[in-house]
Write a structure and sequence with these properties.
It holds the Pfam family GDI. By secondary structure, the protein is an alpha/beta fold. Helix 1 runs parallel beside helix 9 and helix 1 crosses helix 11.
Length: 443
Amino acid sequence: MDEDYDVIVLGTGLTECVMSGLMSVSKKKVLHMDRNDYYGGESASLTPLEQVYKHFKMGVPPPETMGRGRDWNVDLIPKFLMASGKLVKLLVHTGVTRYLEFKSIEGSYVYKGGKIYKIPADEKEGLSTSLMGIFEKRRFIKFFQFLQNFDINDPKTWHGMDPKQTTAKEMFEKFGLDDNTQDFNGHGIALYRSEEYKSAPLIDFVERGKLYYESLARFGKSPYLYPLYGLGELPQGFARLSAIYGGTYMLNKPGCHIKYGEDGKVIGVESEGEVARCKMVICDPSYAQDKVKKTGQVVRAICIMNHPVPNTKDVLSVQIIIPQNQVNRKHDIYVSVVSHTHQIAAKGFFLAIVSTTVETSNPEAELQVGLDLLGPIEQKFVTVSDMYEQKDGTESSNVFISRSYDATSHFETTCDDVLDLYEKIMKEKFDFTQVNLTQNEEM
């Protein structure tokens, strides 16, 4: 390791791997290290199923009824990709899509009044859904058409509202939408995590809504994608990419201690008595605990089932968002379900994860509304994880730290973190106009 690098990346979570790819593509000399002997960090995919039981200290092997252990690829923190979202664009930009195969998620649902409802995918579904009454449907269709036709460069499409001054709440009031319709639009379509969406500028809400429906148009069933064989394929794809650009990956490196000069700036990373010199470190919070602050906790329940989620027309994969308003909470509850069709479980089995931001001293109980939607559960693994982010001002040491994974069941917030890190490091925003491949090349 007696060598100088532009960047040393510590940890193989998705954020670190995307940053490694972006730095490599930007012609920087990259060394990527992890104390673990596997890719993915806290968001790893575990296989075979025996490894999952061992990870959660079950003390017994999985039952034979769950099929062959090697047919399972269990993501500890599964998240979906928006088909037209930022992560897909980043994957295209770095060329990692050539190593991956994706399959769409079959349904996108929202919770209201104790039941789940499919989020309308088009005007026809908007008119037939039981999510709204007949008069509300007409108002929603007008709003839906407004979303579809909105063009920031054409004031005629603004309906007399200022995109940057008008709030989303004022926009809803203009279309006469009731609280329930606002709820499923704000949380199920625009993917806001709290009531903040009501005070957000109209333009922010509209862009999120348009992203949802543009993603939906790509594959027709839902706006979400999931890689075959699980999310563990993503960091491994970046490892291949890094090698192409001359980057070096080292797994199973104990220690990985960041070293600083007298001026407080990073000078390298030490492992097994050797120091690799560098100008900058990008890492997950576990590698720089003195430079992070705790921001909360996430509770997650990974559930193995032998049946689809009830009341979803037996789809083999689904996302369900439970808006916090519906269950008297401050944060949404997320339910994501994948199955053997994504090559992550034995045939006939489903993996569901229910997650939320912890608000009480009894985190598992906070998931109950989501767990109740699943029906009988064969096995459940519950974790409570601390969330961290970098302390203000510590970037002056040239150490840049990713945020912990939040409770959301999609990657949009993780992408925001990647782009934020990129801007801090490169002193410029990532230029998405450079990403211009056809759909066939993308997927």
